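Pasting as-is:
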Amino acid sequence: MYVEAPELATYPNIRHAFFTREGGVSEGIYASLNGGLGSSDDPEKVRENRRRMAAELEVAPEALVSVHQVHSADAVIVEKPWEGQRPKADGMATAVPGIALGITTADCGPVLFADPHVGIIGAAHAGWRGASSGILEATLEAMEQLGARRDKIVAVLGPTIGPDAYEVGGEFRANFIALDSGNEDFFRPSAREGHAMFDLPAYIGRRLEWAGIGEFANLGLCTYSHEDQFFSYRRTTHRGEPDYGRLISAITLIPSYL
């Protein structure tokens, strides 16, 4: 049902999960653990799936908090579960035990953060657009506002589309390199003329390294290549399917250890 990262699992005050698509009640293209509130799946099934995830994290269903993701560089501080509409943002941070920060993805990079020494956690949705515009750094800054130390922060990248599955056009490559000439490191030739393969996980890792965090780890799991485990926006697009399920990656502070 979920994957854990050793880099986070060693801390007794933190619980986390990179949920797979297994263990839920959704059907068809959403089978089975679809956590996407914005998908066209049956809302009752999505709520049941999220209830199951919250139970695994040992938090109340309403305490599995997510934002309305818009590929932005905006991160918010969470003090309690939302009342009404979710804020538009792509990163979150909290120091409140019992709140689970849940990121929704289907190829983009879910990054879970923790400064376990002071009990501050964060989560970010990092596609190429959000990562290049600063969502990772914004999430770190939100954590620092709560008292985290950047050099003590551990960040883990969960299931993300891998470099062997992410083919882009020449215009994408040119525009990305125009942002920073060093971005050329993240491309290699594709079998198709005028195209290239893009390494999003490596780019996310480089941004976090430049940001000065204490430790970064990549689970190395490709969403596109493992259909039995993960949803993939690109895979469903290639097949012409009308929609796709969403994965949830979440982290919470355990009250009894704080």
